[in-house]
């Protein structure tokens, strides 16, 4: 059991045959803001509204201190709902003055991917720690610039890969690392859903749209974390759409790819905005670890020859856990659990998939 599990009094029940069920009961106690970090959310779309803001009402190590939005009506609603003082409400023009606000310790960038680099760098230059939603950015160069800026300004940078903080992911990574089922032989992972929108930023290439940037990084994470290795090559990739009137100019509604890892291990991944797909299969010498669903906000289900993998929690527990972990790391001056370099690794693969899908051949890493 990790330190967070002990702190939050997780109840563990052995069920036999290796099965495990855990119900996290977050014990919040008194909310002393003097001992917690103030977080400003930049961008008040669905993820901030439905998940991050509610989660920040339950976190132990941080709280919702401010917002950044270009919509005055949203600012008014959020101010009233969450009791956010006027001096902690910013727009995109006066954002840089956040440097003078001692209430704000962390800026959480929750914008379309095309805007991540700008606001991560502006936040770092304002002297604030930065959390950035996935995908980290549009290119490896943008990721590098973001990392360099945070390092130069002595601010931490974490990428919002919630699954790396949650117990199902940590359990299958432990099984793989300790070779409890022998060495990994093959990985298959899929992450996607049917998106019926036609004019969202996810359908606009210049804003970082397409399935690969959005859900695709979950499939890439499944391949990388499931194998416990970094790829040596991308050997095949294909991009397609059944709705060319929506996914125009080569924008990917669906993407598939094959990654090669050391030792002749291959991973097949799939992501889509055209169909629901959500699974992770890690085939090892002594059996297969299977998850379905693999990347939902709740209800993850895993099994292997070692037994069932079950951790029961309700959303937004993943977001609570992620932000509490990252806030505590800042307060204790420890490295981020999911640093900028982790986001860069995935974008390197995204770039390779686009290249191979359009030009053919392979990309060596």
DSSP helical segment count: 10
Q: Helicity, in percent?
A: 25-40%
Beta-strand percent range: 25-35%
Mean pLDDT: 92
Q: Tell me about the largest β-sheet.
A: 11 strands, mixed
N-to-C SSE string, H for helix and E for strand: HEEEHEHEEHEHEHEHHEEEEEEEHHE
Strand order of the largest sheet: 1-2-16-15-14-13-9-12-11-10-17
What Rg do the Cα atoms give? 20 Å
Low-pLDDT residue spans:
1-33
* SS class: alpha/beta
Task: Categorize the overall geometry.
Answer: globular
Tell me the number of strands. 17
**Amino-to-carboxy terminus distance:** 35 Å
Notable characteristics:
365 residues; alpha/beta; 11-stranded mixed sheet; 10 helices; disordered N terminus
Give an account of the 3D structure.
The chain has 365 residues and is an alpha/beta fold. It is built from 10 helices and 17 strands. It has helices spanning 3-7, 46-56, 72-82, 116-125, 140-152, 167-177, 211-214, 216-227, 317-331, 340-359; strands spanning 11-16, 19-23, 37-42, 62-68, 89-90, 106-109, 129-132, 157-159, 184-192, 233-240, 254-261, 265-272, 277-284, 287-291, 302-304, 307-311, 363-364. An 11-stranded mixed sheet has the order 1-2-16-15-14-13-9-12-11-10-17. A 6-stranded parallel sheet has the order 5-4-3-6-7-8, with helices on both faces. The protein is globular and about 55 Å long. Mean pLDDT is 92; it is low at 1-33.
